[in-house]
Each structure stands twice: as structure tokens, then as C-alpha cells.
Specification:
The chain is of the alpha+beta class. The protein folds into 2 domains: 82 residues, Nuclear Transport Factor 2, Chain: A (Roll), CATH 3.10.450; 139 residues, 3-Layer(aba) Sandwich (Glutaredoxin). It has 9 helices and 11 strands. It has a 5-stranded mixed β-sheet. A 4-stranded antiparallel β-sheet has the order 3-4-5-6, with helices on one face. It has a two-stranded antiparallel ribbon with strand order 1-2. Strand 1 and strand 2 form a beta hairpin. The two termini are 33 Å apart.
Length: 253
């Protein structure tokens, strides 16, 4: 977050950070993006320093989207202004920063190989949810009791595992036992019900690395709370929701 902290020196105007008259420079900056905006790239390099890592992507005809660490900002295409907080479109009343975050989340979700996730599939699928969960989280266990009901209502649930412990910790090993079991769904049901699961399946390194990748993915999203529910349009709701609340939300998308 060091690079992002540098933005805190910018003047605060209506919850928006604005930096004007940044001098261009030929500074080399590390970032990844197929989209290029050399003017904005140079100005961000001058502002944040040559070692800063950021990503520039196109947002709309007015703004580009900037990712710095796990933070999403908007910038004018000429690099004159940076915006962080809320940017309200007075016509649509939409928060453009939130829309930029939603687009970013959808791109991240699309990059996940579905076969690597623990999925509870609805027979007559109408909607999909991605839930970031933890076996040791009481509200995650409560939400898990609603999975069958959600499936019956046509909602497929993908789990991204977010155990609150590093490799080798008790919660990490419990999650490995569930994720790497011969029947992961049954093992997860047991773990969520009993708080533990004994698996006769030997966890291979590929499966363990998959769990590590899921933890890293949650960090990329910037999520720390569990459960966190990610909807198909990129909106998130941290915390517990009832089946009725989830279905009502899905019907408004």
C-alpha cells in the first residue's frame, strides 16, 4: 500500500482526490495492461515513483481505471485528475468508482478456472453466486445451511476458500481435507456441520497450491470478511444473508 499512501497528500474535494499539473517524466514503471495511455502512465510514474506498480485499463470515454495494490481509482485520460471515494454521475446517479470496482471484480472472477472451485450446482440453473467462505466462520456455517435451498431455487454457488491461517495451520489443514477429498461437497458439508473433516484422500501438492491460490485471490479482491457474497454483476455483500434476501437481490440484477 506504500504507493497508494502517497495519494493521501492530494487535496480532498467533495470526497474526491484531485492532483493537478503533474509534470510528465520518462520514468519506467512496472504495471500490466493491454490497454495503453502513455500520457497518464508518465504522470502516474512521476506521482508515485519509478518502483510503483499500477495498472491502467479503459473505463469509459471520460475516465480510465487505475488499480494500485487493491485500490481502484478513476483518472481523467490526460492524467490531470485522480478520483478516489465516490464519483457520482448526476444523470444516472450511479457511483462510478463502485462501477469500476464491479468491472474489476468480474474480470477477476472470469480468470478463475471453474473446475478449481468447490461448486454446488443447481439442476435448473438460473443464477450464479461466488461466496468467499471459511470453515471456522460461524456465519459461513449458517450460510452453508442455505446452499441446498439456493440450489433448489436455481442458484449455483461457487466457493472460494478463505481459511484464516497459513499453510500448515489447523484451519488450513481442515480446508485442505475438505477441498482435496474424493467428494469435496460431502466433505465440506461435514466440515461446516461439525467444524472438522477427516479425509482418507491424500492431498496432493496441486490441490494444496490451489487452496493457496484461492487465498491469494481473496487478497487480490481486497476481501477480508467472511462470508462475502459476490453477485454476477460484480456487486458484493459482506456478511450473512438469508435465502430470501439473496433471491430478492438476484431478481433485481
Amino acid at each position: 500500500m506504500r504507493a497508494f499512501y502517497k495519494l493521501s497528500i492530494l487535496p480532498l474535494i467533495s470526497s474526491v482526490f484531485v492532483y493537478a499539473n503533474i509534470v510528465s517524466a520518462e520514468t519506467s514503471t512496472q504495471h500490466l495492461s493491454a490497454y495503453t495511455n502513455q500520457v497518464l502512465d508518465k504522470k502516474l510514474s512521476t506521482l508515485l515513483g519509478p518502483q510503483a506498480k499500477f495498472e491502467i485499463t479503459q473505463f469509459n470515454n471520460t475516465f480510465d481505471r487505475i488499480k494500485i495494490d487493491n485500490q481502484i481509482l478513476l483518472a481523467s485520460k490526460n492524467g490531470q485528475y485522480l478520483f478516489w471515494g465516490k464519483v457520482i454521475d448526476t444523470s444516472s446517479r450511479a457511483d462510478l468508482i463502485e462501477l469500476a470496482n464491479q468491472q474489476h471484480r468480474l474480470a477477476l472472477v472470469a480468470s478463475i478456472p471453474r473446475e478449481k472451485l468447490l461448486t454446488y450446482t443447481a439442476k435448473k440453473e438460473q443464477h450464479k453466486l461466488t461466496i468467499f467462505t471459511d470453515i471456522d466462520c460461524p456465519f459461513c456455517r449458517k450460510l452453508h445451511t442455505q446452499i441446498k435451498d439456493l440450489n433448489q431455487h436455481g442458484v449455483t454457488v461457487d466457493y472460494v476458500m478463505l481459511p484464516r491461517g497459513k499453510a500448515g495451520s489447523a484451519v488450513f489443514n481442515k480446508t485442505v481435507n475438505a477441498l482435496c477429498a474424493a467428494n469435496p461437497q460431502a466433505a465440506m458439508d461435514s466440515a461446516m456441520h461439525n467444524g472438522n473433516v477427516e479425509s482418507s484422500t491424500q492431498a496432493n501438492q496441486t490441490c494444496v497450491n490451489n487452496l493457496k491460490a484461492q487465498q491469494a485471490l481473496a487478497q487480490t479482491f481486497g476481501f477480508s470478511a467472511t462470508p462475502t457474497i459476490l453477485f454476477a454483476n460484480g456487486e458484493i455483500v459482506p456478511g450473512l444473508m438469508t435465502t430470501k434476501e439473496i433471491l430478492n437481490k438476484l431478481n433485481t440484477l
